[in-house]
């Protein structure tokens, strides 16, 4: 590996161990075996490097669900959208203990966004790519099939749900929802919607 990749791997380790705010440039240099000048040369700034490291860490998490992986193959057995929805959540929750530092980072970004303006700006630009990947995951389609409208509606919905559920698991695993709980809630919403549609009177 060259210095660029060494820095990225070192930054990921620092993020998962210390978080955004407590990771210094010297921490990254020590973890990567490089030097301070390398950060500016390859990434422009420490914040830009940390943003890329965080995005890559999230992508690696998503890769665990891709077709060809054990989880991806299991998801292909779903017979309906709601069954796949439940299965995806079950797998996300099963992986939670090993991915807890990653979700803690997401909470840190949300809580300290005002103190991390450069990182917030960089992650805001990367968000649509994450939303698109979530639509592909929950609907079992190739990401190339996810258009801008789906990304902006379904993608943001799944991202909001994901961050909320993981925050609940960080706060209190004993009371956090399971995949079945989330699927039952979705079914209840659909039933209520169908009832409202059937019982709706004429519009003026």
How would you describe this structure to a colleague?
This protein is mainly α and 204 residues long. The protein is elongated. The protein is 76% helix and 0% strand. Helix 4 (46-63) runs parallel beside helix 7. The model has no long low-confidence stretch (mean pLDDT 91).
Rg over alpha carbons: 20 Å
Shape: elongated
Q: In what range is the share of β-strand residues?
A: under 5%
| Total beta strand runs | 0
Sequence stretches where pLDDT stays below 50 over 5 or more residues: none
Helix/strand order, N-terminal first:
HHHHHHHHH
Q: Report on the biggest sheet.
A: none
Q: How confident overall, as mean pLDDT? A: 91
Helix content: over 70%
Question: What's the N-to-C terminus distance?
Answer: 67 Å
Instruction: Label the structural class.
Output: mainly alpha
Task: Note the total helix count.
Answer: 9
């Amino acid at each position: 590996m060259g210095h660029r990749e060494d820095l990225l791997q070192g930054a990921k380790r620092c993020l998962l161990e210390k978080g955004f705010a407590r990771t210094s440039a010297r921490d990254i240099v020590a973890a990567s075996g490089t030097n301070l000048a390398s950060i500016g040369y390859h990434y422009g700034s420490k914040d830009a490097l940390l943003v890329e490291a965080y995005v890559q860490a999230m992508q690696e998490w998503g890769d665990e669900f891709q077709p060809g992986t054990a989880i991806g193959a299991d998801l292909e057995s779903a017979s309906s959208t709601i069954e796949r929805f439940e299965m995806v959540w079950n797998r996300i929750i099963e992986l939670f203990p090993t991915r807890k530092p990653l979700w803690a980072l997401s909470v840190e970004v949300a809580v300290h966004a005002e103190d991390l303006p450069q990182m917030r700006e960089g992650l805001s630009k990367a968000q649509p790519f994450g939303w698109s990947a979530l639509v592909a995951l929950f609907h079992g389609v190739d990401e190339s099939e996810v258009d801008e409208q789906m990304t902006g509606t379904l993608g943001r919905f799944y991202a909001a749900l994901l961050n909320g559920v993981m925050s609940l698991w960080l706060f209190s695993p004993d009371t956090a929802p399971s995949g079945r709980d989330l699927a039952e809630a979705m079914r209840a919403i659909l039933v209520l919607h169908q009832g409202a549609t059937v019982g709706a009177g004429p519009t003026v």
